[in-house]
């Protein structure tokens, strides 16, 4: 691995990220955490003095992430669990007496990504995301072993999340930051997300061009006149408003073809009605030439 400054070109390697659960009571939370980690592509779990582990309950809750549990490392203390880490971030619902650098989950994800790049470029350092006990969280001593704290901005009336849910929120942000860094604006190959900024690339049919739009407005105006809806002698703002409406929508060329097909159909209908070639609206079967209406 080459040494040097962190560079944009280095793909974020989430295997440098370790989620550390401190003194967890409920093995179900350990299993649910393993599942959250696998969902988010973070492979490493460290357990500090878990109260009930190994456990079948943890395995059941991990579902298809039992491999994360099988690889999980158990440590007697937090100091030992983060000994190889160059960045340690502790998750806490409460602000402590002494102010500490506090990050949102999104800021936390950016710090994690920058540290992954630095650590990868220099080939040294792991990153720990530390989560506390279900009942009492992290002790002050444990929080002081962290470079940063991360707080999920939850409801002030009840800001303490379930442990595995808190892990999921923080790891989700790390994953999104990683995908954005990798230029994955589609956020997942099999479920492309709509992004107005790259709509042209996303859409299946090209946008109608200026020429097509002008032909459409011409056609629209002609059809509206034929329907007696629009009076060119007294146009008001009808056509500018139509231009503004369709300009906002930016139809694609197939949509414009469909609209023009509708207009042609309406024109034909009006022509036949005017020629007395259609049954009248109350279904009497009588022809209704325009001049008799
Ligand atoms: N009652 C404890 C919270 C325990 S929840 C307390 O008040 O500290 C278990 C763990 O989930 C916490 O130690 C913390 O790591 C994480 N957690 C829960 N809610 C969180 C939040 N809003 N922000 C950051 N971490 C949170």
TrEMBL record:
Task: Report the GO terms under cellular component.
Answer: cytosol
Q: Name one Pfam family in it.
A: SpoU_methylase
Domain (tRNA/rRNA methyltransferase SpoU type) ranges: 17-172
Key words, A-Z:
Methyltransferase, S-adenosyl-L-methionine, Transferase
NCBIfam families named in the record: rRNA_methyl_1 (TIGR00050)
GO BP field: tRNA nucleoside ribose methylation
Q: What is the recorded name of this protein?
A: tRNA/rRNA methyltransferase SpoU type domain-containing protein
- Segments traversing the membrane: none
Which GO molecular function entries does the Swiss-Prot or TrEMBL record give? RNA binding; RNA methyltransferase activity
Entry keyword Transport = no
Q: Which family does it belong to?
A: Belongs to the class IV-like SAM-binding methyltransferase superfamily. RNA methyltransferase TrmH family.
